[in-house]
Amino acid sequence: MTSAVAVRLANVSRHFEAGGGLVRAVDGVSLSLPRGAITALIGPSGSGKTTLLSLVGGLLPVTAGVVETDGIDLGTLDQAALTAFRLHHLGIVFQAFHLIDALTVAENVELPLTLAGVRRPDARRRALALVERLGLAARADVLPRVLSGGEKQRTALARALVLDPPVVLADEPTGSLDAAAGEDVITLLQTEATAHGRAVIAASHDPRLLARADRVVAMSFGRVV
Ligand SMILES: Nc1ncnc2c1ncn2[C@@H]1O[C@H](COP(=O)(O)OP(=O)(O)O)[C@@H](O)[C@H]1O
Ligand SMILES: [Mg+2]
């Protein structure tokens, strides 16, 4: 049976050496985050939100403590295992989308499938089904540069979701979007949490995302307050 806990942090710290000083970006954080829910991570700029998401995603190693994501102790994985872990267990979206400019919408979404060894035409079929579910059917074969901000973020979300990850990390996902597009993306994230049982963890200042989060974790100076 899968546990209701998707992410567990035990006394986690991440420090950086910067300009001769020590920055405690994340400082002794313990947390359990549930599946099937949106957790909003809030706090002022520099409070450690992006660093915390990076630790949960295995994008950065901890200085101390244990991070368990989807039941896996990330400290036990080498680089190759971490890469495979991220591909199969995580979807990540960023404020700046990070789409590949030279690939169409559908090709961007196909990319994780290709990396996971899924061959065309199966990859194409699965990518198109998701593109359609996220309201992008008419945009499948265009390049990202002609998309609106909201369409870009929905494409990034489709790419993040295409391997059906149990955990979705979103760093300021509505930060570059206008109000209506932001609302759409929040609705999609909420559906992914509730209808598909994913743990969605979103660092955000957006009051609409906060209003619809199941749980709010507030950070200040690297600590949960
Ligand atoms: N690679 C790094 N090297 C040095 N300091 C960093 C690095 N990444 C983040 N920091 C510092 O850690 C603190 C937390 O940053 P961050 O996690 O980006 O906060 P937030 O996302 O809440 O704005 C800040 O003081 C930031 O300057
Ligand atoms: Mg940040």
Structural account:
The chain has 225 residues and is α/β, with parallel strands linked by helices. The protein has one domain: Rossmann fold (3-Layer(aba) Sandwich). 34% of the residues lie in helices and 29% in strands. The protein is built from 7 helices and 10 strands. The longest helix has 16 residues, at 179-194. The radius of gyration is 17 Å and the shape is globular. The model has no long low-confidence stretch (mean pLDDT 96). The chain binds adenosine-5'-diphosphate (ADP) and magnesium ion.
Secondary-structure blueprint:
Blueprint: E1 5-18, E2 21-34, E3 37-42, H1 49-56, E4 64-69, E5 72-73, H2 79-89, E6 90-94, H3 105-115, H4 122-133, H5 149-161, E7 167-171, H6 179-194, E8 199-203, H7 207-212, E9 215-220, E10 223-224
Parallel strand pairs: 3-8, 3-9, 6-7, 7-8
Antiparallel strand pairs: 1-2, 1-4, 4-5, 9-10
Helix pairs in contact: 3-4, 3-5, 5-6
Residues 49-50, 171, 203 line the site of magnesium ion.
A few lines on this structure:
It is built from seven helices and ten strands. With 225 residues, it is α/β, with parallel strands linked by helices.
Oligomer: single chain
Individual helix count: 7
CATH class: Alpha Beta
How do the strands line up in the largest sheet? Answer: 6-7-8-3-9-10
User: Ranges with pLDDT <50 over ≥5 residues?
Assistant: none
Q: Name the average pLDDT.
A: 96
Q: SSE order in H/E notation? A: EEEHEEHEHHHEHEHEE
How large is the share of residues in beta strands? 25-35%
Query: Structural class, please?
Result: alpha/beta
Please tell me the CATH architecture by its name.
3-Layer(aba) Sandwich
Radius of gyration: 17 Å
Bound molecules: adenosine-5'-diphosphate, magnesium ion
The H-level CATH homologous superfamily, spelled out, is: P-loop containing nucleotide triphosphate hydrolases
Share of helical residues: 25-40%
**Number of domains as seen in the coordinates:** 1
Task: Compute the separation of the termini in Å.
Answer: 32 Å
Choose one word for the global shape.
globular
The major pleated sheet works out as: 6 strands, mixed
Number of strands: 10
- Kindly identify the CATH topology: Rossmann fold
